[in-house]
């Protein structure tokens, strides 16, 4: 049973998520909180984008609304309202749901590009309105509050916040998964496939889409409220386009056709920004590059590839695949090395610091990268990335050829049917 | 065909539809008797598809009225017309390609059971729904293909699924739009048999080009030419009708 295996895998993952964090330092705990929040946000987004086929470019709106709703409730709790701290995300859920009902009513009147544009416009509207609405969104500075103790739990440490977040994310994630097995969950997939036929079967397609939208916005609101609880503050930048864009990138890199795919993308991107953003200012460029490469060479996302491998595991000749796969990995690493070298060199050479030094020296001075000094006009400086790139590409191409040879023509990499679509 | 007791299953009275300056249907009158199998034939561009789209609610008529079992349905949305008891199939196969055959049919069964926003019970545990779905699949001969993705079915299987889905919502008036289009001779014969068996006890209105299907299956035939009904009669009467021969049937032999 695939379901049993999936569940036991998830149980093992959950056990790790419960057991490991106490041994991590604060910054890692915080990073994991962000991973969990991004995961829930991506799952919520994918309910709309992957399952209902409605690509929203403005999901930051519902994430942000949830965050502000939770903060207002936290402020009320600070002022003496008796409300249990662990249930604060309910405010995010309610606010997200209501915002989703209203916005979804208008957005789902159209589909495709027009739907995407309406959702984008709604988020932009909030983004430009919020700084002026000091009462609700606290102006440009935003609003802040404190987590209040409840039931003997102080909610002062990051670890307590982590477990609260974990609880809500697991609860909502399972809820969204159970959703796919309900009649309405199946109808959601039918809406994606053929909205017209849904109507002729006697369903009110518009109203159904509004409900899907509202549920997606509700879960997004919970994710936003968890961020508010963790940060104890929020401002209008939560409504920004890059928040909306991040969840799109994460979902599609992770794989929108597999239920837990978005979690993979959310985890990778969040950890990537946590680990890499301190090392280089070009991390957003790398992130964009990853997105483009995944879309070009693995349009079903990482989750889609993993799902395909697991599903076809008996047909795949693993022993023959191992060597070309290793070759491809090494090739990929070499290419990555070459790209990073060039990007970081460009970042230095076209930077302000270097411009100042160049003016002082009157020539092209050497620059430091990876602990080594490089001469910008030296042969070696450009030979290293050239060798890395060419060698990497050569390995990738030969590896790819061998993999195609092993796979044969019979399962050419066409779009794999989604597991969500196949299950009955 | 006036009846004092029962209203017609479907009545079109003075139905006109224009797209801009073009009148596709002109003051069209048509009564469909409950329980009959009625075919609409006519040359391409006569307005057959528009007629179906008006009845099923894809478009609203420009003027005139459409009544289902005595109740006006003109201008209602497709899902309301469906709930009022009319279901249609499509000329171009209109199924859920990325869902299994079983799920395609089950969505129709769920709609009939009124489970439109079912969020609190797994659909796998709805025994009656799943049993009825299996029954419909058996009736259209798709039981062995239940778990196949609908998009992977052969063309004639997809047409059978199309008919199966049209049946599921429990409507008593069925509109089939060229159910045998694109089929081989044997497939057409099978499809006609299928239509005969699954529409027993229901009212059927179908657009069909294959005259052998029309003549073997239908009680009455209406000929639609340039947006108006030229004649409505039994199949024998239609083939003997001179005006029809000139306008339509003659073209085929000429």
Word description of this protein:
The complex is a heterodimer of chains A (424) and B (254). By secondary structure, chain A is an all-alpha fold. Chain A is built from 18 helices and four strands. A two-stranded antiparallel ribbon of chain A has the order 1-2. A two-stranded antiparallel sheet of chain A has the order 3-4. In chain A, helix 2 (26-51) packs parallel to helix 7, helix 4 (89-107) runs antiparallel to helix 10 and helix 11 (241-254) packs across helix 12 (261-276). The model of chain B has no long low-confidence stretch (mean pLDDT 88). Helix content of chain B is 37%, strand content 23%. Chain B is of the alpha/beta class. Chain B contains nine helices and ten strands. A six-stranded mixed β-sheet of chain B has the order 6-7-8-3-9-10, sandwiched between helices. A four-stranded antiparallel β-sheet of chain B has the order 2-1-4-5, covered by helices on one side.
Structural descriptors:
heterodimer; A: 424 residues; mainly alpha; two-stranded antiparallel sheet; 18 helices; 71% helix; 2% strand; globular; B: 254 residues; alpha/beta; Rossmann fold; 2 domains; six-stranded mixed beta sheet; four-stranded antiparallel beta sheet; 9 helices; 10 strands; 37% helix
In short:
The complex is a heterodimer of chains A (about 425) and B (about 250). Chain A has about 425 residues and is mainly α.
**Which strands sit side by side, in order, in the main sheet of chain A?**
1-2
Largest interface: A-B, 32 and 42 residues
Q: How big is the Rg of chain B?
A: 18 Å
Helical percentage of chain A: over 70%
Q: How many strands appear in the DSSP assignment of chain B?
A: 10
**Contiguous uncertain segments of 5+ residues of chain A:** 409-419
N-to-C order of helices and strands of chain B: EEEHEEHEHHHEHEHEEHH
What is the count of β-strands of chain A? 4
**CATH topology description of the largest domain in chain B:** Rossmann fold
Counting copies of identical and different chains, the oligomeric state is: heterodimer
The N- to C-terminal Cα distance of chain B equals 34 Å
The whole-number mean of residue pLDDT values of chain A reads: 88
Strand content of chain A: under 5%
Largest sheet of chain B: 6 strands, mixed
Beta-strand share of residues of chain B: 15-25%
Strand order of the largest sheet of chain B: 6-7-8-3-9-10
